[in-house]
Predict the 3D structure of the following.
Amino acid sequence: MNPLRLVKTESFETAPVTMQPILSSDHGEFVEMAMQYFRSLNPQFDPQPDWKQLYFQNILSDLSLFVRWVLADGQRVGFIMFGLERHRILPRVGGAIYELYIRPEFRRKGIAATAARQAISELRAQSPSKIELQIMTGNHGATAFWKALGFCKVSERYVLAESKK
């Protein structure tokens, strides 16, 4: 599969929705949009120095990750990141959707669903044992969105709280 090809998908309203690989020359625009995304999840998001320095670089250098602009009528309206993961123990590869962000003024037009279905299609072409994602606790909109696309809850993930010294 050519990672630089423009992928035509479905349409929202009357404008075509496409996906296009994010390139190293897109650094500034992508980092700005990623910060908008993370701040939408956590208004106190304050990127640490390692995030500022390595986040974008590490995404582009990881050949198991696919990061795409989501375009509506040729305009960059969001991004999606998905990829393949080796199972920790078994000789399997799974698919994962890591991030999907559509700017607020372009939501509820079918754009995110179009991008998600295209990512799922690209992952399925790699024959993963499963395709998974994580949703932050309390993000009811995301939960409803992904359930509507066929995902179901199979576990809960817990993170050790920071200890106070």
